[in-house]
């Protein structure tokens, strides 16, 4: 079964980190990604630019509106994701808990729909 | 095996039906657990079991109860599952479903009585999975392990039946769609996951215990919670917190007959007629808590049970060993540092060392700030002022407690107290 692990975190945390803390965090993500790959669970994973770079598009009554910013202002923002393959939710939750941001932010675990 | 044939009177029919309902409740957890394991599909297994139970309730009062009731229900449920799968696979044929249908069809044809391995532990951990909403966990556990019908659960919790049905549907859908596994958690995860199971059982008990209105149906929830706790202790004999919870429930339940007076008003521990306490429950609860504590892995339920045991050991309220209770609340507070535990500790301290010291402790901002909207803080203050002989202060705090209380029998208790302290001297 495939799961998407959505990483939500207050992006101000990253912005106010000193260089050493930033490097440690990068190392932690690097090690985690490697562990996922070694186990065979890794399907994809990326970090996102901050929400200041986000643009939201909506079409209503045939008219396209394009606005600056994320679809909603929230205290924690989507900052990255992993897509993994896990036998069940318990295993997916274990992987989610190992993401460094689980200690400061929140990881939302969503099963992926398989059509057909 | 009972005699076949139509029962002679409506009374006999009702009696047969009640006996069948009890039997169904005792076997449904086992049958369901085995069926979920066999089918790998929680929702399908539950539906098939409900079908089988419905036909048992229809046929047994007329045909007589079969020699092996669990076997009968298991066979019938397997047939119903096959019917449901056949209907389903004609729409979307999935590879593994086709294989399952073929296997089941062979089994049903050969009419082998299925094995019923005990999968109740996997069942309860699935039903109480922390990824499910709490109310869904409660409803699912009561139905799957307790064998209660949706209608019975609705009546016990005083909510409409469709609400309960919807909670169950939502929980089942999540089990399926998010693939919540049907298994006993790994050893390292067991304490955390067990605490979710125990919390569900405690919640069921409290729902029954807090209710003094709604009559016997609600009290049944206490019985049900005790039955569930017994199953967990039986299945996980080395878990001291499970024993602690069972002991706690038994010790609380031992006071049930003495907790309300003839008018339904609450009678506090101090004023209960202790001859109405259930000795058998007390003895069993005390033995359990003793055995658990000797294993030196304390937890909140064991300590709460020990507190209840100290109360149970006093034949009169004045003989309560309050210093031991203060010590136990201090231990509990180190494990569960909540304002309510601190409030209870202060109340025990007042009993051990006098109302003045108790009042001083209640002024601790760690208690008085977060609990300002909680009626029991104000009634505790009121009781202490009353014991000091300060009627105006006592009355002021009883009035505040009355503004906040929601439970009827507690309200009647507070009103009586207020009347006592405002009576003309």
Brief descriptors of the model:
heterodimer, A: alpha+beta, Alpha-Beta Plaits, 4-stranded antiparallel beta sheet, two-stranded antiparallel sheet, B: 425 residues, Rna Polymerase Sigma Factor, Chain: A, Serine Threonine Protein Phosphatase 5, Tetratricopeptide repeat, 71% helix
Helix coverage percent of residues of chain A? 25-40%
CATH architecture of chain A: 2-Layer Sandwich
Order of helices and strands of chain B: HHHHHHHHHHHHHHHHHHHH
Span between termini of chain A: 14 Å
Question: CATH topology of the domain at 10-110 in chain B, anyone?
Answer: Rna Polymerase Sigma Factor, Chain: A
Strand/helix succession of chain A: EHHEEEEHE
| Rg over alpha carbons of chain A | 16 Å
Q: If you had to describe this structure to a student in words, what would you say it looks like?
A:
The complex is a heterodimer of chains A (116) and B (425). Chain A is 31% helix and 35% strand. Chain A contains 3 helices and 6 strands; from the N terminus they run βααββββαβ. The longest helix of chain A is centred in the N-terminal third of the chain and has 21 residues, at 19-39. Chain A is flat, with a radius of gyration of 16 Å. The model of chain A has no long low-confidence stretch (mean pLDDT 94). Chain A has one domain (2-111): Dimeric alpha+beta barrel (Alpha-Beta Plaits), CATH 3.30.70.1060. Chain A has 116 residues and is an alpha+beta fold. Chain A starts with a strand and ends in a 5-residue tail after the last strand. Chain A has helices spanning 11-15, 19-39, 89-98; strands spanning 2-9, 42-47, 55-60, 63-68, 77-85, 106-111. With 425 residues, chain B is mostly helical. Among the domains of chain B are: 10-110, Rna Polymerase Sigma Factor, Chain: A; 336-425, Tetratricopeptide repeat domain (Serine Threonine Protein Phosphatase 5, Tetratricopeptide repeat, Alpha Horseshoe), CATH 1.25.40. Helix content of chain B is 71%, strand content 0%. Classes of the chains: A alpha+beta (116), B mainly alpha (425). Chain A binds chain B through residues 1, 87-90, 93, 109, 111, and chain B through 129, 131, 177-181, 183, 185, 189.
């Amino acid at each position: 079964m495939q799961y998407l692990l959505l990483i939500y975190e207050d992006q101000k945390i990253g912005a106010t980190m000193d260089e050493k803390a930033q490097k440690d965090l990068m190392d932690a993500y690097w090690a985690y990604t490697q562990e996922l790959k070694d186990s065979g669970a890794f399907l994809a994973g990326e970090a996102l630019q901050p929400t200041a770079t986000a643009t939201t598009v909506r079409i209503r009554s045939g008219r396209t509106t394009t606005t600056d910013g994320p679809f909603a202002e929230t205290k924690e923002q989507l900052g990255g994701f992993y897509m993994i393959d896990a036998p069940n939710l318990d295993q997916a939750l274990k992987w989610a808990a190992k993401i460094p941001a689980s200690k400061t932010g929140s990881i939302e675990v969503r099963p992926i729909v398989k059509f057909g | 095996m009972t005699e076949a044939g139509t029962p002679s009177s409506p009374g006999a029919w009702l009696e047969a039906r009640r006996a069948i309902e009890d039997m169904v409740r005792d076997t449904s957890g086992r049958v369901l657990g085995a069926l979920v394991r066999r089918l790998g599909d929680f929702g399908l297994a539950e539906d098939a079991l409900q079908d089988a139970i419905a036909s048992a309730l229809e046929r047994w009062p007329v045909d007589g109860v079969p020699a092996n009731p669990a076997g009968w229900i298991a066979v019938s449920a397997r047939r119903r599952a096959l019917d449901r799968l056949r209907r389903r696979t004609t729409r979307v044929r999935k590879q593994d479903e086709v294989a399952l249908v073929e296997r089941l069809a062979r089994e049903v044809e050969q009419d082998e009585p299925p094995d019923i391995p005990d999968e109740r532990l996997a069942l309860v951990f699935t039903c109480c999975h922390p990824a499910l909403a709490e109310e869904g966990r409660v409803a699912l556990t009561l139905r799957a392990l307790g064998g209660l019908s949706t209608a019975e659960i609705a009546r016990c919790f005083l909510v409409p039946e469709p609400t309960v049905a919807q909670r169950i549907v939502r929980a089942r859908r999540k089990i399926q769609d998010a693939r919540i596994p049907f298994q006993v958690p790994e050893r390292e995860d067991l304490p955390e996951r067990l605490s979710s199971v125990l919390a569900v059982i405690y919640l069921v008990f409290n729902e029954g215990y807090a209710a003094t209105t709604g009559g016997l149906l609600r009290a049944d929830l206490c019985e049900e919670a005790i039955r569930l706790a017994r199953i967990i202790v039986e299945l996980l004999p080395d878990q001291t917190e499970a024993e602690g919870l069972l002991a706690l429930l038994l010790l609380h339940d031992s006071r049930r007959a003495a907790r309300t007076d003839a008018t339904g008003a609450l009678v506090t521990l101090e004023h209960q007629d202790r001859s109405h306490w259930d000795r058998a429950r007390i003895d069993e609860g005390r033995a359990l808590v003793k055995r658990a504590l000797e294993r030196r892995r304390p937890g909140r339920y064991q300590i709460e049970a020990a507190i209840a045991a100290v109360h149970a050991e006093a034949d009169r309220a004045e003989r309560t060993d309050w210093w031991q209770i203060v010590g136990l609340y201090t231990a509990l507070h180190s494990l569960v540092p909540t304002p309510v535990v601190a409030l209870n500790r202060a109340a025990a301290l007042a009993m051990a060392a006098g109302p003045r010291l108790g009042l001083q402790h209640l002024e601790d901002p760690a208690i008085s700030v977060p609990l300002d909207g909680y009626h029991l803080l104000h009634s505790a203050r009121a009781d202490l002022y009353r014991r000091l002989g300060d009627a105006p202060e006592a009355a002021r705090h009883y009035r505040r407690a009355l503004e906040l209380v929601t439970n009827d029998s507690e309200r009647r208790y507070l009103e009586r107290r207020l009347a006592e302290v405002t009576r003309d001297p």
